[in-house]
Design brief:
Layout: H1 5-14, H2 35-59
Length: 63
Amino acid sequence: MLISPEDVVATAERLDVNAEILPHMGHMMMLDTRWERTAERLLQWLDTLHQPVAAERSCHVPA
């Protein structure tokens, strides 16, 4: 283990963000044999970021 889950949580708290620990996944998760789980979770997170932006853009119609 290179970086413990506790270190990840402590770093997230220091940066005032939420940490999400994926079970049975190492720090270099994109190199893990279960990398698809990480990629799927990242896509879910990106989708949550996109929705408010799309709604915000629809409210601001350029003149």
